[in-house]
Amino acid sequence: MPLLCWPVTLPAFTVQDLSSLRAQIVDVVSGSAFLFIGLAGFGIALVRRQSGARLFILLGIWSATYGAIQLSHQSVVLAALPHWLASIAPFANTAMTYLTVVAGALCFRELSLGKVRTFMLFIALAGVAIAVGGVTAFVRTGNNSTLIPYNNLLAACLLAVLTVVVAVRRFSRKYLVLQNQRVLAVGSLLFAGEALFVNLSRPLGVHSPKVLDHIGFAIFLSSLAYSGLQLVLASERRLLSIESELRIARDIQTAILPERAPELDHLRVSTTYRPMTAVAGDFYEFLAVDRDRVGVLVADVSGHGVPAALFASMIKVAVQAVEPYACDPKAVLSGLNRTLSNQLRGQLISAAYLWLDTEKQQALYSAAGHPPLLRWRGGRLEHIESNGLLFGVNAECDGYPVCAIPLRSGDRFLLYTDGVTEPENAHGVAFGDTRLEQVVCDNRDRPASELSERVLAELRLWQTDSLTQGDDITLLVVDVV
Question: Three-state SS string across the chain, please?
């Protein structure tokens, strides 16, 4: 059976084209490699956005720029480009040539500290100014080397400072963020040596192979990339260490909170505690005297995270000193204020304390700058406010007014921190007291634990998925049965 053949048209290469291609093959291959590696590194760093990604983004730009410059000088590459792209190649080449120094200065700035970091920023800004002037001169006169001597001088200054800093141990310890700069020192010295050899040999008529430039630059870029990888790994180790410490801190904080609500004859208590981060500045405690009498304390330290959690843990110790006065809200809050105020170092704490005595059918309530106590009774929701100063304002303050509240079967009390009412939706509108009251009214017949779940569910619905929890949340619901 005869084979069917289709004519295949191949590009027509002359002997001169092939000779030119052989002469430019090193630059074409090297330029393509630098361009591909630079763009790939830039893309990966941009997507991952981990610590140290900025250095790899800059290295990617620098490598891609170097590769593009090499390719734009090759006639065989220009001949293969579309006409419009080939026409702008000289302008792009001129701009990239001048901006190479800027990319290098910004890369080394990511590894520098102190005065050297400031100097690298100065080099980058000066490089931008020279680039603008050089491109402008090229557009006007067609001469792409008008300011190249100044650009080369800037590059020499950059390379000289880099070499001295990485080679002299005293300077590297002071001005580099790296703990081990040996690889960077070797790469920098080899690159500087190659550049010095090339620039001294050319005036003497000695032309070194162009491949040496590519090898030297590749070694230098690799040493910078290795240094960046050192920073990334060190940062990840620090993050792992911090996460481990936060887990321990969370376990410790969980241990200082009550394991469960106290078992009481005529009271049912539900607790909800949701930290914004691994640890929280919210705190609650029960001062149970017997099965008929209990004190409920809720506190909220200003701020978030570890500092707030440390102060919250101090409240646990301070509570032990006021436990004998559990039946007196004024004495409890005054004692906590005196104990904590001298230790808070500018932090403030709001608190609310509710004493419940089902035998006498009476409750006592007082607070220190805290959101109001909510009481549901007979189809109505009441706000009960009885506030004194926040803890940390005045250590000698004992002006915490006490409100006496008669207890009845069916009463429901809510103690909470502002993390319940302050969350905002996508339009910046806070959940607010009104919305909380509506949820309480709509779920008046549900048990205390189910009401707590409904409040959390409504908070999640109020906030969009893109919005994270903005504050620590603590909610205690007490039902009189």
Answer: CCCCCCCCCCCCCCHHHHHHHHHHHHHHHHHHHHHHHHHHHHHHHHHHCCCCHHHHHHHHHHHHHHHHHHHHCCHHHHHHCCHHHHHHHHHHHHHHHHHHHHHHHHHHHCCECHHHHHHHHHHHHHHHHHHHHHHHHHHHHCCCCCCHHHHHHHHHHHHHHHHHHHHCHHHHHHHECCCCCHHHHHHHHHHHHHHHHHHHHHHHCCCCCCHHHHHHHHHHHHHHHHHHHHHHHHHHHHHHHHHHHHHHHHHHHHHHCCCCCCCCCCEEEEEEEECCCCCCCEEEEEEECCCCEEEEEEEEECCCHHHHHHHHHHHHHHHHHHHHHCCCHHHHHHHHHHHHHCCCCCCCEEEEEEEEECCCCEEEEEEECCCCEEEEECCEEEEECCEECCECCCCCCCCCCCEEEECCCCCEEEEECCCCCCCECCCCCECHHHHHHHHHHHCCCCCHHHHHHHHHHHHHHHCCCCCCCCCCEEEEEEEEC
The structural domains of the chain, ordered by start, are: 15-241 (1.20.1070), 257-480 (3.60.40.10)
- pLDDT < 50: residue spans in the chain: 1-13, 15
pLDDT digits (tens, 9 = 90+) for 354-371: 999 999 999 999 999 999
Percentage of residues in the chain having pLDDT higher than 70: 90
Structure tokens at 307: 């500092």
In this prediction the pTM is 0.62
Structure-token match 């080899």, residue found = 190
β-partners of residue 364 are: 355, 404
Q: Distances from the Cα of 179 to the Cαs of 224, 228, 230, in angstroms?
A: 14, 12, 9
Distance in angstroms (rounded) separating the CA atoms of residues 236 and 50: 9
Query: How many whole angstroms separate alpha carbon 479 and alpha carbon 422?
Result: 25
For the segment 149-205, what is each residue's pLDDT rounded down to a tens digit? 898 888 888 888 888 888 888 888 888 887 777 888 888 888 888 777 776 666 666
